[in-house]
Amino acid sequence: MRITLLLPLLLLTHLAFAQTVTGRWVTVDDETGKRRSVVEITERGGRLYGRIVQLFRDPGEDPDPICTKCATDDDRHGRKVIGMEIIRGLVRDGEEWGDGTILDPKNGSVYDCKLWLENGQLKVRGYVAFFYRTQTWLREQGK
């Protein structure tokens, strides 16, 4: 009898965990379809933050690059990309997180950001005014 009551509770817990945006996500370049990095998203004080924990580099690319294109007044300028916090300060608004920023270390640009889950994938939108780009990130398997 206890097992019968416990099983649905465990399944609900698993489903709730599966629906969170926190965790490790594989970023996919929306132009080439290649995996580019793994970003670990965490929640601190009711806000989301994301840090690059791994890069997938092509032969000939620097395996441990530094953000040389970040603005000189940005605290990330001249820092290693691996370990860099690229998502900052997103707050929850219903099923979405927004009102924060995302940095593209490849070009040094900082964009307004919002993200949401859709069919088990993370949709990440960086935007300036009415112009935006949305990427689909995939949950890292086995972590």
Structure description:
This protein has 143 residues and is mainly beta. It has a single domain, classed as Beta Barrel (Lipocalin). The protein contains 1 helix and 8 strands; from the N terminus they run H-E-E-E-E-E-E-E-E. The protein has one helix spanning 2-18; strands at residues 23-28, 35-44, 47-55, 85-93, 96-104, 109-118, 121-128, 131-139. Strands 1-2-3-4-5-6-7-8 form an 8-stranded antiparallel barrel. A hairpin with a 2-residue loop joins strand 2 (35-44) and strand 3 (47-55). The chain is globular.
Strand order of the largest sheet: 1-2-3-4-5-6-7-8
Overall structural domain count = 1
- The proportion of strand residues reads over 45%
Mean pLDDT value: 89
Tell how many strands the DSSP assignment holds: 8
Number of DSSP helical runs:
1
Helix content estimate: 10-25%
> Order of SSEs, N→C?
HEEEEEEEE
- Taking pLDDT < 50 over at least 5 consecutive residues as the criterion, the unreliable ranges are 4-17
Give the radius of gyration: 17 Å
